[in-house]
C-alpha cells in the first residue's frame, strides 16, 4: 500500500529535553488523519518534523515519497498545503492584499505577489474563491475580513497549489460556532479532491465524517493511532486529556463530555 507519510521511532530533543519520544505511525493512501492532544502535548513539534523544519534527533521519516536525508525538503514542502496560526507573523503583509492575491500567492508559496500572473492562474484562484463561497472577498483586503473569512481564505491559498497533503493546524481556533462550521464544511470536502488531510486540534467535535484515522498524543508520545472508531474511546481520550471523559457519536461526529464517575469511561 502506498504510504503518504511514515515516521519510524522518531525522537526529537531540544536543549537536552526530549520533546518527542519514539513516535511511529503511517498514513496510507486514501486515509484522512486527525491529531488530538492537549496544548503542549507535542502536536506542533510533530508538524515541524513532518514539514522538515526540525530534523529528528533519531529515527527516520518519509513524507509524500520524500525520505529525509535523501531528497530535497524544500521541494517536498511545495507539495504540501499548510494552514496554521504561525502564519499570523505575515499579518502586516496580508493586510494589504486582496482575497484574490492571497489565494494566488499560494501558487508560489509566498506572501504577496512578486511575479507576473498568467490568465490561467487568475482563473484558478477565482475558482478556488468561488468554491469556498468567498467570491465577495476577491477585491477586498485582508484587514476587512472577519476571523472566519481570514481562515477560509488561507485554506484557499493552501489549496491553490493543488497540494497532495493538506495540513491544518487548529484552523478553528478562536472562531465562533458559525465560523467554525463554515471551515469544517470545507474540511469535510477535502478528500473529494483526491488529496490527503492531516488535521490537528484538541477539540474532537471538529472531526467531521471525512476523518478516517486518529492519532492521540500525550507528553510527546503516542497514546493510540488507528481507525477513528477504535481510537476515540472514553478510556483512550481520558488518558490523552488527563481527565475522565465519555465519548458519543452524532451525525458522524464525535462529542465529548466529562465523566464524573471515574473508571466508567467507555
UniProtKB/TrEMBL annotation:
<dbReference type="GO" id="GO:0005524">
    <property type="term" value="F:ATP binding"/>
</dbReference>
<dbReference type="InterPro" id="IPR050153">
    <property type="entry name" value="Metal_Ion_Import_ABC"/>
</dbReference>
<dbReference type="InterPro" id="IPR003593">
    <property type="entry name" value="AAA+_ATPase"/>
</dbReference>
<comment type="similarity">
    <text>Belongs to the ABC transporter superfamily.</text>
</comment>
<feature type="domain" description="ABC transporter">
    <location>
        <begin position="5"/>
        <end position="244"/>
    </location>
</feature>
<keyword id="KW-0813">Transport</keyword>
<dbReference type="InterPro" id="IPR017871">
    <property type="entry name" value="ABC_transporter-like_CS"/>
</dbReference>
<dbReference type="InterPro" id="IPR027417">
    <property type="entry name" value="P-loop_NTPase"/>
</dbReference>
<protein>
    <submittedName>
        <fullName>Iron complex transport system ATP-binding protein</fullName>
    </submittedName>
</protein>
<keyword id="KW-0067">ATP-binding</keyword>
<dbReference type="InterPro" id="IPR003439">
    <property type="entry name" value="ABC_transporter-like_ATP-bd"/>
</dbReference>
<keyword id="KW-0547">Nucleotide-binding</keyword>
<dbReference type="GO" id="GO:0016887">
    <property type="term" value="F:ATP hydrolysis activity"/>
</dbReference>
<dbReference type="Pfam" id="PF00005">
    <property type="entry name" value="ABC_tran"/>
</dbReference>
Amino acid at each position: 500500500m502506498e504510504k503518504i507519510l511514515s515516521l519510524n521511532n522518531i525522537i526529537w530533543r531540544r536543549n537536552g529535553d526530549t520533546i518527542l519520544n519514539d513516535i511511529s505511525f503511517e498514513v496510507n493512501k486514501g486515509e484522512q488523519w486527525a491529531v488530538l492532544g492537549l496544548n503542549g502535548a507535542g502536536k506542533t513539534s510533530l508538524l515541524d518534523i513532518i514539514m522538515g523544519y526540525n530534523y529528528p534527533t533519531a529515527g527516520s521519516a518519509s513524507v509524500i515519497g520524500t525520505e529525509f536525508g535523501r531528497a530535497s525538503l524544500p521541494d517536498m514542502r511545495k507539495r504540501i498545503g499548510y494552514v496554521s496560526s504561525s502564519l499570523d507573523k505575515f499579518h502586516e503583509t496580508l493586510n494589504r492584499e486582496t482575497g484574490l492575491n492571497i489565494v494566488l500567492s499560494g501558487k508560489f508559496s509566498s506572501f504577496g505577489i512578486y511575479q507576473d500572473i498568467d490568465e490561467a492562474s487568475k482563473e484558478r484562484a477565482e475558482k478556488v474563491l468561488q468554491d469556498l463561497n468567498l467570491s465577495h472577498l476577491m477585491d477586498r483586503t485582508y484587514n476587512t475580513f472577519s476571523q472566519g473569512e481570514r481562515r477560509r481564505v488561507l485554506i484557499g491559498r493552501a489549496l491553490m497549489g493543488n497540494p497532495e497533503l493538506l495540513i491544518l493546524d487548529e484552523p478553528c481556533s478562536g472562531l465562533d460556532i458559525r465560523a467554525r462550521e463554515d471551515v469544517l464544511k470545507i474540511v469535510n470536502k477535502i478528500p473529494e479532491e483526491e488529496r490527503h488531510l492531516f488535521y490537528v486540534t484538541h477539540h474532537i467535535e471538529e472531526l467531521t465524517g471525512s476523518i478516517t484515522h486518529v492519532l492521540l498524543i500525550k507528553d510527546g508520545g503516542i497514546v493510540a493511532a488507528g481507525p477513528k472508531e477504535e481510537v476515540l474511546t472514553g478510556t483512550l481520550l481520558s488518558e490523552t486529556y488527563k481527565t475522565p471523559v465519555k465519548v458519543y457519536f452524532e451525525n458522524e461526529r464525535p462529542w465529548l463530555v466529562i465523566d464524573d464517575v471515574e473508571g466508567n469511561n467507555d
